[in-house]
């Protein structure tokens, strides 16, 4: 852990250029290096054969291209793959690959644990541990390609990336924005901005900030049509109520010329799934560039909530559609690799986490249920 080498996956392209120039190198070397990393997926400096030998030797001393380490990998019959990863001795986080007809989505994490404390989310139980670095966020996409057998020149294996894994991405703005720049870079991963989605629980000031700095697709975890209920489910609502949140959302769309915002809505039996609540939700969103994505709740040990029944979810969907708002149901994928309704349960090394100021030691942590799409 005393290794002082910089992880080059931390740098955007201009940052890498600056780093090379600062060390007395030429700009074209930075471009070569970038291309080796992102176009050819090469992580060994020794294999970058057109780089000068002395430059390679120097790189080996001062830099590295380090990917997160795989702790466990589970392959489902439907092609979904879930990984539990770690970046150092104790930090566990998850990543999920979801192949579908015509697209394949990689769901990545932005933090280890989460401080938002949403009552229906298993990550909240774990508390907040730390922000992932830019390199750890970018490294997930890199690692997934490698794990899935991607070779330079192959067709894309991953068409969409969603920041919907563990953590609140806008609470890690400083590392998430550069990571998205690298994912969007046309000489990097070259993802389309419509195929890179950031999901947030509703950090309003950061949504305004994001509108200035990035143009990715936005998903917002709404989960309730009124402030009283939303404050119970998503505590950040007490600071930034629904009206403020929606205002920020419409601002984001205007600034970014985006198509629409996806509002995620977890279906909790008897809590937020009544037809009246569906109509209220539609009234909030009607006439705006919005679509609703209903997520059947994934239960986890100790939760007070139950998943809404299929008929209740369908009836809710109908009411939202009738109310004039686009809506879909998110399908749960990869069920067979975990008995507990698409949940990844990983044993992570003993550690201390902080949650609401209290320190506690956890031996076994469960990651948030795998997001299905
Ligand atoms: N922190 C971000 C991104 C992570 S979660 C956010 O809140 O948007 C991605 C989605 O999964 C969110 O909409 C989240 O509310 C939802 N989710 C969390 N726990 C869930 C559960 N147990 N069942 C179904 N969806 C859940």
Overview of the structural elements:
- By secondary structure, this protein is an alpha/beta fold.
- It has 2 domains: 6-64, DNA polymerase, domain 1, CATH 1.10.150; 69-362, TIM Barrel (Alpha-Beta Barrel), CATH 3.20.20.
- 32% of the residues lie in helices and 23% in strands.
- The chain has 11 helices and 18 strands.
- The chain has helices spanning 13-22, 27-38, 53-62, 122-126, 134-147, 173-184, 204-213, 227-233, 242-256, 275-285, 310-322, and strands at 6-7, 63-64, 69-75, 81-86, 92-100, 103-107, 111-113, 128-131, 160-163, 196-200, 217-221, 261-267, 290-296, 326-329, 345-346, 351-355, 358-362, 365-366.
- The strands form 5 sheets. Strands 3-4-5-6-9-10-11-12-13-14 form a 10-stranded mixed β-sheet. It has a two-stranded parallel sheet with strand order 1-2.
- The radius of gyration is 21 Å and the shape is elongated.
- It binds S-adenosyl-L-homocysteine (SAH).
Question: Which helices and strands, and how do they pair?
Answer:
Elements: E1 6-7, H1 13-22, H2 27-38, H3 53-62, E2 63-64, E3 69-75, E4 81-86, E5 92-100, E6 103-107, E7 111-113, H4 122-126, E8 128-131, H5 134-147, E9 160-163, H6 173-184, E10 196-200, H7 204-213, E11 217-221, H8 227-233, H9 242-256, E12 261-267, H10 275-285, E13 290-296, H11 310-322, E14 326-329, E15 345-346, E16 351-355, E17 358-362, E18 365-366
Bound molecules: S-adenosyl-L-homocysteine.
S-adenosyl-L-homocysteine binds at residues 118, 120-122, 164, 168, 199-201, 221, 264, 266, 295, 297-298, 368-369, 371.
């Amino acid at each position: 852990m005393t290794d002082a080498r910089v992880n080059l996956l931390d740098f955007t392209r201009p940052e890498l250029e600056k780093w090379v120039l600062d060390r007395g190198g030429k700009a074209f070397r930075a471009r070569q290096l970038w291309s080796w990393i992102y176009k050819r997926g090469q992580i060994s400096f020794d294999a970058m054969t057109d780089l000068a030998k002395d430059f390679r030797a120097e790189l080996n001393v001062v830099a590295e291209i380090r990917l997160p380490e795989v702790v466990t990998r589970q392959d489902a019959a439907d092609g979904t793959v879930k990984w539990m990863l770690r970046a150092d001795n104790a930090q566990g986080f998850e990543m999920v690959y979801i192949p579908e007809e015509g697209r394949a989505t990689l769901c990545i994490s932005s933090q280890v644990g989460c401080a938002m404390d949403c009552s229906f989310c298993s990550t909240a139980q774990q508390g907040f541990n730390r922000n992932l670095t830019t390199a750890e966020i970018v490294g997930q996409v890199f690692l997934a390609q490698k794990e899935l057998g991607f070779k330079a020149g192959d067709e894309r294996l991953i068409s969409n990336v969603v920041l919907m894994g563990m953590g609140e991405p806008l609470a890690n703005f400083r590392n998430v924005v550069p990571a998205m720049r690298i994912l969007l870079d046309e000489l990097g991963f070259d993802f389309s901005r419509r195929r890179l989605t950031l999901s947030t629980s509703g950090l309003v000031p950061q949504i305004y900030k994001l509108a200035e700095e990035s143009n990715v697709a936005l998903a917002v975890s709404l989960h309730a049509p009124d402030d009283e209920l939303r404050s119970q489910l998503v505590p950040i609502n007490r600071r930034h109520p629904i009206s403020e949140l929606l205002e920020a959302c419409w601002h984001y769309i205007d600034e970014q010329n985006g198509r629409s915002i996806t509002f995620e809505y977890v279906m909790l039996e008897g809590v937020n799934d009544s037809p009246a609540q569906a109509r209220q939700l539609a009234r909030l969103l009607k006439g705006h560039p919005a679509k609703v994505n209903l997520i059947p709740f994934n239960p986890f040990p100790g939760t007070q909530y139950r998943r809404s029944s299929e008929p209740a979810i369908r009836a809710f969907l109908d009411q939202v559609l009738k109310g004039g708002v686009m809506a879909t149901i998110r399908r749960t994928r990869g069920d067979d690799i975990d008995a507990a309704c698409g949940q990844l349960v990983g044993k992570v090394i003993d550690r201390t986490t902080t949650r609401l100021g209290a320190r506690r030691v956890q031996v076994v942590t469960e990651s948030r249920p795998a997001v299905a799409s």
